[in-house]
């Protein structure tokens, strides 16, 4: 799929209307550092490898992968911005906190427990997950706060892992949980959210070809601040749906609770599809600021992935099921 550029729209809102003053002030500091207006990053290239070379590459941080089926002509966000400007409240609410503090998270050993309504519950180690046929997918990321990036993820389709577990006929949803390690995740000491962080998808959403489990970006293993060692990427939804540092995947019959819905159900719905026609109660979702650009641009329905996902929401009231 290729996303076409469109002209920036009107109706811009200032960032201090979108976020609390403390966070707004923090972002002004980031802008002074240059993170918001483009950064020169030296990013090493990654050669395609196989066999023992691939195993050695993983140890060094590089990943063997092939081009995936989804990409975009849009300019990729600079590596330093992708890894330096994040929401990962387990390490703090400042956008710089994850890069500062996420190194404390020990991602080896790491396992993902898969259970619930399935025929083959299992626990899989990250080393086994890294042996999947990996591919690069360049996806747009749209944050609910009104900013966006374009990121080259490395990983594999979520559907492949789901099919391996064989969910039964009662399974209608998939629940995800982030690691809960208070000694390693300083943000867990706060009560900004109910911990551990949890998210969920309908089963058909999780099986959609766009749904992706990322283990790397820019050719390297996933940095801790971006959700190492494995995270979800669902590019047609707002970024908080793409849960990081996953430890549990559970098939359920009923819609599972999600962290931000618990925090404010009137602001953060279960579906949280990118929708420029449904505003957040405190700001417009019609436009976004691409990190590295000055002007705002129009937000696309489903973040530009409507051809792949719109059919799942046919006949649904997207203002009610936001």
TrEMBL record:
GO molecular-function terms, A-Z: oxidoreductase activity; transferase activity
Coiled coil: none
Cofactor binding mode and count: Binds 1 Mo-molybdopterin (Mo-MPT) cofactor per subunit.
Annotated binding of Mo-molybdopterin, by residue: 86, 89-90, 143, 178, 226, 231, 242-244
Family matches, as InterPro entries: MsrP, OxRdtase_Mopterin-bd_dom, OxRdtase_Mopterin-bd_sf
Cofactor(s) the protein requires to work: Mo-molybdopterin
Domain of life of the organism encoding this protein: Bacteria
Enzymatic class: oxidoreductase
Keyword Transferase: yes
Family annotation (SUPFAM superfamilies): Oxidoreductase molybdopterin-binding domain
Alphabetical UniProt keywords: Metal-binding, Molybdenum, Oxidoreductase, Signal, Transferase
Catalytic activities: L-methionyl-[protein] + a quinone + H2O = L-methionyl-(R)-S-oxide-[protein] + a quinol; L-methionyl-[protein] + a quinone + H2O = L-methionyl-(S)-S-oxide-[protein] + a quinol
Every Oxidoreductase molybdopterin-binding domain range: 106-260
EC number(s) reported in the record: 1.8.5.-
Listed Gene3D superfamilies: Oxidoreductase, molybdopterin-binding domain (3.90.420.10)
Keyword field contains Signal: yes
UniProt record similarity statement: Belongs to the MsrP family.
Function: Part of the MsrPQ system that repairs oxidized periplasmic proteins containing methionine sulfoxide residues (Met-O), using respiratory chain electrons. Thus protects these proteins from oxidative-stress damage caused by reactive species of oxygen and chlorine generated by the host defense mechanisms. MsrPQ is essential for the maintenance of envelope integrity under bleach stress, rescuing a wide series of structurally unrelated periplasmic proteins from methionine oxidation.
Quaternary data: Heterodimer of a catalytic subunit (MsrP) and a heme-binding subunit (MsrQ).
Name this polypeptide is given: Protein-methionine-sulfoxide reductase catalytic subunit MsrP
Organism of provenance: Asticcacaulis machinosus
Gene behind the chain: msrP
